[in-house]
Structures are given as structure tokens and as C-alpha cells.
Amino acid sequence: MLPPSSDRRTADHADDVIRGLSDVAGLRVVPDPRLADLTTLRIGGRPRALLECETAHAVTAAVGALDAAGVPVLVLGGGSNLVVAGGDLDMVVVAVRNREIGYREADAGGAGGIIVRAGAGLTWDDLVADTVGRGYGGLECLSGIPGSVGATPVQNVGAYGVEVAQVLHRVRWYDRAAGTDEWVEPAALGLAYRTSVLKNTGTAVVLEVEFRLDPAGRSEPIRYAELAGRLGVAPGERADPAVVRRTVLELRRGKGMVLDDDDADTWSAGSFFTNPVVPEERLPTVRSRVTERLGAEQAEQMPAFAAAGGVKLSAGWLIERAGFGKGHPSSSSPARLSTKHTLALTNRGSATADDVIALAREVRDGVFEAFGVELHPEPVWVGCSI
Ligand SMILES: Cc1cc2nc3c(=O)[nH]c(=O)nc-3n(C[C@H](O)[C@H](O)[C@H](O)COP(=O)(O)OP(=O)(O)OC[C@H]3O[C@@H](n4cnc5c(N)ncnc54)[C@H](O)[C@@H]3O)c2cc1C
Questions:
Q1: Residue 202: Cβ within 10 Å count
Q2: Of 76, 96, 116, which residue sits at a domain end?
Q3: Most CB contacts within 10 A, which of 100, 149, 154, 318?
Q4: Is position 259 within any domain?
Q5: Per residue, what are the HEC states of 316-338?
Q6: Does residue 356 line the site of ligand 1, with CB under 6 A?
Q7: Residues 268 and 167 in one domain
Q8: How far is 218 from 137, CA to CA, in rounded Å?
Q9: What is the distance, to the nearest Å, from the Cα of residue 171 to the centroid of all Cα atoms in its chain?
Q10: Of residues 143, 148, 271, 338, which has the active-site annotation?
Q11: Count of alpha carbons within 13 Å of 360, Cβ hemisphere only?
Q12: Is 194 a known active-site residue?
């Protein structure tokens, strides 16, 4: 069946723009793309086209031309924080693949140290491994996080007590409204818990990122109790970055949080829900809902930490206590919670986007029913919503 004529016009229009980009150095049009092959949840349909861009210039040329023509664009890194609808998708995917890396000494006037500059398309963990391999501290706690360098400021990536905001020096971005390519300070990014001005807005494309490193072989202070315990250091102390990296990777593997083609527990988008922050005055109500359901001891043990805007609860704890155990709903379900970590929704190989969305809704609604706490998804939704 032929598409309706307005769709046909859009398709022809997108094809014209893509033809116009074919001479751009470092840009490759990939035939017959499927988002399911490009996302770690292994779901997602067919976009109009996939443009692989190996230079920052190719990225800005592609996004600039598509924006000017009004063609919807999905900027893609490693696809590890995406929930993408199935079927035909009215968008062109621009995959950011510039991977250069360089080091310099920081200006004497600043905080000192070493600055590493990396292309947005470099695999994040390759950058962490390179910095740690040179004996530089700073990124080690963020070892093993999938995805690209350019996506790390998008949701202020964090793990084991460190967030990108703590080590970020500058970002080079392409401002899509103004059509400008410029370096901006971290303050321009509005970085907060798993978010920034870039998340879910698409206002700019990150082209390069600079991070501040410690050349004296000291990690960031170890703030996460489980990691400090494994390392045998007091919380707040520093350690050898290489040892921290090794230990973080071990901890992450135990939770299915390092991508592994042989382990379906890692075929996910990582933590599916952010840890909910509730106003302080709501905490007693939540605790009494926990008491009603599980008893006073559990209510007392419920993890709750002071955070910006109130008290941060543990999404994983709430999910498990609401009745969604590891592996929920069953070993034969195509989409199910990881058998290692209740916060990860996984595709066991044959799940569709609808299967994943149905499971996400079940968990979100179940937690709300049990404790009156609303969970918010962490990944970016493309062509669908929870
Ligand atoms: C097993 C597993 C473990 C994980 N663990 C963690 C964790 O510990 N901590 C954590 O914070 N996250 C974690 N994540 C989530 C994910 O890895 C991060 O959010 C990562 O930064 C996403 O990078 P990406 O390149 O894959 O982004 P993508 O999934 O490709 O894109 C995500 C969003 O960022 C946008 N984007 C991508 N690149 C750019 C760019 N260059 N410029 C502008 N926008 C861009 C996309 O348009 C999209 O909106 C985990 C995911 C998995 C699968």
C-alpha cells in the first residue's frame, strides 16, 4: 500500500536532504537501519534513514540541514538510555561517532590538573579506561556505564557516588535554534540528578566534552558506602583509580550493569526509574503506608536520604517491596525485571516495545498503589510514552 500523499512528500523531502549531504566528509548513509539493532534494550522500529557521522562537522552539517528542512531528527549515541517504539518511525537518526581524544595541562589560573578532551561519539568506558590507564583520577567511579561521551552531560550520568557534574570542565555543543557551534561552561547545562537542559529537549547536540582529571593518581573521594567497604577505605578517602575501576566493574557486573551479549540481564536501559524525591512532609505518610503493608521494622529500614527538593527514596527497594521481585513476572516472559536487579527492565530477546512499556506501567502503577509514591522513568522515550 502506498503511504498517504503528505507522508510521501515528507519522505521525498527527507530523501532530498540526505542526498544533499552525501558529499559531506565523514558522513555515511547506512542502508536499512533498525533501532532494535542500535539500542541496548534491543527494541525500536525503522527510521527513515541512519546517518553515521564520524566528525563534529558531519554532525552539525546533518543536524543543521535536517532541522532547516523540518525533518524530525533523533540524535543517537550508544542507544543505552532509549525506549523506542516499534514500526515505521518518522525520523532520521543522526549517530554521533566522532571519537578523537587528547590531553593537556589545565591553565595555571584554574584548579590545575589535566584536562582530557573527547569526541562525543567515543564510547564512554573507553575514555574512562584510557584516563585510568594513564594514572589520572576522576572518572574511575563511572567505569562500566554504557553509551557515549556526548550523552554523559545529557542526564548528568552518575554512579557509585560520583556524577559527571563533579568532573566536567566544558562542553562543545551545536545550538540547534541558533545554528552555532560553541564551548559552554557547566553552568549552562543546568545539571541536576539525572537531568540537564538537554534531556528530553533536543535543544543542542554535544560535539566534544572536556573533563578535569587529577594527575597525582588519586581517585575522586569515595562516597558510596558499598564501594568504600569493598576498597577498605573510609568514606570520603581517595584511592588508586585503577583499583577503584576494577572494583566498580566487579560490583556492576554482579548487578547486571555492564553490557554483556551473553547475559540477557544486561539487555536493558540500566536503571529504568530514577530514585523518587518526595517532599520531607510526605515522608511520614510513605512510612505509614510501608508499615500497613510490611510492618514497622521494614518502615524503619526504608532507605531515605536528604536530597535537593526533599528526601530521596530507593526506587529498587520500593519496587521489590511492592511485590515485583527479581525476574518478575516469570521466566517465560519476553520482558521482565532483571534477575539481578529489580530496577532494570530487560528484554530477554523477543520483547517488543509494547511488552517493555506494559511491564513499566505495571511496576510504576503497582508502586503507586502500594506506597503512594510516583516513579518516573529515567530513559528517553522515542515515539512512545509510559
Ligand atoms: C546496563 C546499563 C547500565 C547503566 N548504568 C548507568 C549508570 O550507572 N548511571 C547512569 O547515569 N546511567 C546508566 N545507564 C544509562 C545510560 O548508559 C546513560 O544514560 C548513557 O549516558 C547514555 O548514553 P548513550 O550514548 O547510549 O545515549 P543514547 O541512549 O544514545 O541517547 C540518550 C539521550 O541522549 C541524547 N544524546 C545522545 N548523544 C547525544 C549528543 N551527543 N548530544 C546531545 N544529545 C545526545 C539522545 O538524543 C537521547 O535523548 C545504564 C544503561 C545500561 C544499559
A1: 16
A2: 96
A3: 149
A4: no
A5: HHHHHHCCCCCCCCCCCCCEEEC
A6: no
A7: no
A8: 5
A9: 17
A10: 271
A11: 28
A12: yes
The C-alpha atoms of residue 174 and residue 162 are separated, in whole angstroms, by 27
Residues 107 and 232 in one domain: yes
Q: Are residues 120 and 89 in the same domain?
A: no
Among 1-10, 240-249, 334-343, 357-366, name the one with the lowest average pLDDT. Answer: 1-10
Separation CA 13–CA 352 (nearest Å): 30
Distances 304 to 318, 346, 366 between C-alpha atoms, Å: 11, 26, 20
Q: Is 205 in the pocket of ligand 1 (CB under 6 A)?
A: yes
Whether 246 and 304 share a structural domain: no
Domains held by the chain: number:
3
Give the pLDDT confidence of 213-264 residue by residue, as tens digits.
Answer: 999 999 999 999 999 999 999 999 999 999 999 999 999 999 999 999 999 9
3 state DSSP class of 108: coil
CA Rg value for the chain: 22
Domain that holds residue 213: 101-254
Share of the chain above pLDDT 90, in %: 94
Cβ of residue 198 lying under 6 Å from some atom of ligand 1: yes
Q: Which of 378, 385, 273, 286 is nearest to 324 (CA)?
A: 273
Q: Quick one: 163 and 22 in the same domain? A: no
In the predicted structure, residue 8 carries a pLDDT above the cut 80? no
Cβ partners under 8 Å of residue 284, min gap 6: none
If you measure from the C-alpha of residue 281 to the centroid of ligand 1, how many angstroms do you get, rounded to a whole number? 33
Verify that 185 and 292 share a domain, yes or no.
Answer: no
Residues 43 and 105 in one domain: no
Listed residues 72, 96, 120: the one ending a domain = 96
Helix (H, G, I), strand (E, B) or coil at 209: strand
| Residue in this structure with the C-alpha cell 587528547, named with its chain if needed | 102
Q: Render 245-298 in DSSP notation, one character per residue.
A: HHHHHHHHHHTT-S--TT-GGG-B-SSSBPPPEE-GGGHHHHHHHHHHHH-HHH
Whether residue 346 is found in the same domain as residue 240:
no
Question: Which tens digits make up the pLDDT trace of 269-285?
Answer: 999 999 999 999 999 99
Which of 150, 191, 196, 155 has the alpha carbon at shortest distance from 174? 150
The residue ranking higher by pLDDT, 101 or 6, is 101
CA distance 63 to 65: 6
Dist. CA 301 → ligand 1 center (Å): 32
Ligand 1 centre from 151 Cα, in Å? 5
